[in-house]
Amino acid sequence: MTAIRLRVNGAVMTDNVPPRLSLADFLRERRNLTGTHLGCEHGVCGACTVLVDGEPARSCLMLAVACDERAVETIEGFGGDPVIAALRRNFHRHHALQCGYCTPAMLITARDLILRGRTGSEREIRVGLAGNICRCTGYTNIVTAIAEAAKEIGKEAPNAQ
């Protein structure tokens, strides 16, 4: 076992973990943060996307021990985030989800795209979402929802970054 200390959704946590425990399994099994979904467990589908030190990362490929002294944010940690709120409104308004399995990671990825100013065109949004697979929606409504949320954020909070 290896002792780790990390900040998850703003709270400092310590634990003793097996050296090969993935961050995804740590979050789901040890912290009950089940918004982080496991799909392919090969880093291809993007369902396990979280932020590590503010950057999107595949938690199924990252070991929990690699997050020692780092900050991790899961979908559960964005309750008061205005960008996630705009995305949620627009995902609902534009019917951008069906089964919802990919949605937490889509929201995290979309938030990152908006904050980095990478939502200027449909193509730019689609390229930004390339690492997140959705088998239900066909992406059209997701892209529309992200574009609308980006416009909203641009109006509400020009310095949202």
Could you describe the 3D structure shown?
The protein is of the alpha+beta class and 161 residues long. The protein folds into 2 domains: 2-77, Ubiquitin-like (UB roll) (Roll), CATH 3.10.20.30; 79-156, [2Fe-2S]-binding domain (DNA polymerase, domain 1, Orthogonal Bundle). Helices cover 35% and strands 16% of the residues. The protein is built from 5 helices and 5 strands. The chain has a 5-stranded mixed sheet with strand order 2-1-5-3-4, with helices on one face. Strand 3 (49-52) and strand 4 form a beta hairpin. Helix 2 (82-93) packs across helix 5 (140-156). The radius of gyration is 16 Å and the shape is globular. It starts with a strand and ends in a 5-residue tail after the last helix. 42% of the residues are buried.
Number of strands: 5
Percent helix, as a range, is 25-40%
Characterize the main sheet: 5 strands, mixed
Per CATH, which architecture of the largest domain? Orthogonal Bundle
Figure out the total of helices.
5
Q: State the low-pLDDT regions, or none.
A: 157-161
Determine the structural class based on helices, strands and strand pairing: alpha+beta
Number of structural units classed as domains: 2
CATH topology of the largest domain: DNA polymerase, domain 1
Concise overview:
The protein has 5 helices and 5 strands; from the N terminus they run E-E-H-E-E-E-H-H-H-H. With 161 residues, the chain is of the alpha+beta class. It has 2 domains: 2-77, Ubiquitin-like (UB roll) (Roll); 79-156, DNA polymerase, domain 1 (Orthogonal Bundle).
